[in-house]
Amino acid sequence: MTASTIPILHLYRDRGFVVASARVPHSHLLRAGGGSASRNRRNVHQVAEGGEAMGIGPSVEAERQEMLDVVGREHGFRVHRVEPGSPGDEAGLNSILDYIVVANGIRLDRDDGSFVRMIGESKGEEMRLCVFNTHTLRTRETVLVPRDGWGGAGLLGITIRFDVTHALEKHTLHVLEVYENSPASAAGLDAFNDYIIGVGDLLFDGPDDFGEIIVHNCNRPVRLFVYNAGTEAVREVLITPDRMWGGEGCLGCGVGAGYLHVLPHRRRPHKQKEPARLPAPPPPPAAPPAPTEAPADGVPPVPPVIQLAAAAAAEAAEATATATAEAEAEAEAGAVEAVEAAAAAAPSEEMETLPPSVWSGAPSAEAGFAKAIG
């Protein structure tokens, strides 16, 4: 083979990727190619469009063999861990198997901090990622929206590591048997359906390397990344190796490695999950009432409720005063009538025999002055 080639399986058109059947050197897809990012993207698009027009279609096995040539040569950000319910989980990223190789049309072939800065600058906005999967040996497009408030730490909820693409069969162990009452049984490993593809923060290299890691961590919890053939998903399993569990080995399970124990072909395509709906923002607080203008005399205005209460009290007081005045007038009139009746009943002679000083109250001043001179 003169030049390593892979099929271009992604192409920006309208709002998504379409499959093109062109064959181009893999450096056009996964390398900057000695030019700028925009020039690299232009080359990929031109070759892919030309291939689609010519209708070149290599066989599936040839494509797979050519894609295998990428493994172990090209670099990207390996998705090591995905938190449930995170933006990375919603984007359909798979632990251990996925490598982020392109972000927003820029090839991620160097660990220079540009990808981390891009994530921070894209907070709340869509990022278009090209992801290479070492299981399917295909690239796919997904949309990732960095954001806070998803329920965990970070903007993505994933753990990534810049690394070279690893051949999956080198770090795959097929679980063939699980013994009762063993650490493997307590951890829920499923015989024949489970494949161990990662341990802790490492990608082991074969069963011997995996055994050394397990023995070194005996009696301590170890995180395993396990692919299940039924669900076609990777899950995390916590297991505590123990030599004293009552059987052979530290885990109590039998495993197989090699060509007969590779991951089976995926039956269902990768699907991006529906993003979680953020809670609706609370309604804005009601606007406070407009302040009333103060009168010129500086006395604050009386609220309407107090004004109504004061008016009702004034009416009640006025009614009470009117009733009191009417009662006093009736009593006075009754007293006058009583005096007049008593005066009418007395004889008139007694009134005439009384001297003027008696009925008038006092002698006149002129009479007294004349008497003194005389």
TrEMBL record:
Annotated region (Disordered), positions in chain: 267-302, 343-374
Residues engaged in binding Zn(2+): H80
Entry's transmembrane regions: none
Stored PROSITE patterns: PDZ_GRASP
Cell compartments where the protein resides: Golgi apparatus membrane
Matches recorded under Gene3D superfamilies: 2.30.42.10
GO BP annotation list: Golgi organization
Identification of the protein by name: PDZ GRASP-type domain-containing protein
